[in-house]
Every structure is written in C-alpha cells, then in structure tokens.
Amino acid sequence: xxxxxxIHTYIQPKTKSLWCIFCxxxxxxxxxxxxxxxxLYIRYxxxxxxxxxxxxPLGFWINRHIIRMIRKLFWQNRHLSTYHLFAHMIETTExxxxxxxxxxxxxxxxxxxxTVVAAxxxxxxxxxxxxxxxxxxxxxxxxxxxxTEKGKTRLLDIPFSHHxxxxxxxxxxxxxxxxxPIDFTACLLYRKDGKLLNEEQRIAFIESTDELMPLSFSGDxxxxxxxxxxxxxxxxxxxxxxEEKSMLMEK
Length: 251
What we know:
Blueprint: E1 6-11, H1 17-44, H2 55-78, E2 82-86, E3 89-94, E4 104-109, E5 113-127, E6 134-149, E7 152-159, H3 166-177, E8 182-184, H4 199-208, E9 213-214, H5 221-250
Helix pairs in contact: 1-2
C-alpha cells in the first residue's frame, strides 16, 4: 500500500487566456484583410482600390494558420497531461501529440530511475533583429527523468510553468529522500512548442555529455537555481579553458 501513497499530482497548466485573445485579434485582422478590400471597391468603385485586393490572399493565409492555432489551443486546454508522484512510483497520462485520440500512459518505479536532471527550458523567445539572432526572454524549469524500461532507456519530461512553482520542490524533495540522483544542466534541451531536441537526442545528450553536474538541493528551487546556474557556468568556463590550453599545447 505504501507504494501507492500519493505524494503529489501535477497537472499541466492551461494555456493563458492572453494567447487566446491574441489569436482572436489576429483572426479579426485576417478577416478584415479579406473583407475590407472587396467592400471598399464595391462601395466606391475606384480603380486605385484594386491595389488593396492583393491583401486578400494574405488574409486567407493568416486566417488558415490562426484557425489551426486556435483549434490546437482549445484541444490542449481540454487535454492536460497529468503526473502522479507516489511513494515509489510515477504514473502519467500524457497528451503528447495534438488531436491524438489516446494519451500516453506510463508507470515508472523509482527503482528504475537512473537520474533526474533539472534544467531550464524555453517558454518564449523574441527576435532581436531581422537576422537569425535571437534573445532568450523567458525560461521555466523542466525535469528530465531518465529511466529504464524492459532494458531500454527512456525519458520522461515534466515541464513546470515557472521557477517559483512549489510543486517542483515537492518532486525534488521526494527524489532526494528516495536517494534518486539529481543533476543539473543549464543547457536548453526543451522548449514549449517542441521544436528543439527530440527524446532520442535528449537521452543521448544526458547519457554522453559532461554538461551535467550534481544538484545541491536545499528544498527551494527558486533559491537554488541561480547558484546552480552560476556554478554550472563557472565549471563550463574552466573546462573550456582547459580544452583551449590543451589545443594550444598540441599545436
């Protein structure tokens, strides 16, 4: 019975209403681009108004993509992934693919967990110029839980909504009590829209890299995160200096 003692249930947060408002505003703008040129031409019959007709295809394009985005947002808000942390088990119901009919369900004994990696992940980005350069404007914490299942290495991602989410402390505290190894990396391996590394690439990174360092968890992630970030960066800087020195000696 102790194996099924529930420690915490984490439910994926719904998408903020601000995104829905943005999508609706964009949809209205797209409709305006379709309707306004035709209406103005019919109303005033001026030849120069024919130039506005070039905006109609753009309006259709915007509406098509916004409607697709709205459908996805509504679907996601009705299908929220759930993660149950029990005394010696993790059970999940994950809606990993939009518009899928069945969730992915997992049962992961803590004895099968190899390591838990705490890391930041992208929640939003902005373009700093018309070029490819980008500025990171926001992160939140994610837990990468590396475990074995039927002789195969698997990875469970649990993204939290913000750094001051107390639920993360509950999970990390329990892993620490159960003597599950907890590591940290400042490498960004995950982003909210999924357009970064896939599961296989993240597993390969965690298994083969020296970019991980043990996390000294005091009980409060928001307090520990800046220190872990600084320690990781100092460690990475020292490693780069050693590598550069080694390369110079080889030359």
